[in-house]
Amino acid sequence: KQWYQRRVRGRKYGTVRTDNLPEEQFDAMWMHFFNNPLLDTYELRRGCNIVHDLDMIPEPSLVEHMFHACRRLNDYPMTIRILEGIKNKIPKDPVVYQWVLQELAPVMEELGIKTPDELGLHIAPEGKGPLPY
To answer: For residues 88 and 128, what is the distance between their CA atoms, to the nearest angstrom?
Structure first.
């Protein structure tokens, strides 16, 4: 019973309503979320998933805060997932992805983050066709 109450409580108060927020307030809210020193890996992934599920490409400044939160929690795979999520949101417009990477280049260099392409994660195995994603 106690687990169920926590679960219901988490769902009731854990959702984020961002429908009516201006862009600056939205970015400030999420930057504050990712800068929270009490943030754990579960909440980091939850926040990244919520931002990814929204119908938008996150601003590079917001992605910087996500990267710093990943570094603080020593969660390098999450940085790769963030970049993959941005790339998958705009598959037909690689110019936007390149712009995001250009804006994030100083932070990625500072934190030692490589792109999925640099790591070879989107290269098909030898003798196989292109990857389905």
So the answer is: 21
- Whether the CA torsion 69, 71, 72, 74 is positive or negative: it is positive
Measured CA to CA, the distance from residue 106 to residue 64 in angstroms comes to 10
Counted residue by residue, the chain has a size of: 133
Q: Which amino acid is at 74?
A: N
Neighbours of 68 (CB within 10 A): 17
Query: Is residue 124 a contact partner of residue 130, using CB atoms and an 8 Å limit?
Result: yes
Q: Give 14-73 pLDDT, tens digit per residue.
A: 445 556 778 888 889 999 999 999 999 999 999 999 998 888 888 999 999 999 999 999
Say which residue the tokens 């219901």 belong to. Answer: 8
Please report how the helices 76-89 and 60-72 are oriented relative to each other, as an axis angle in degrees rounded to 10. Answer: 160
Distances (CA, A) of 34 to 6, 18, 72, 130: 23, 16, 10, 35
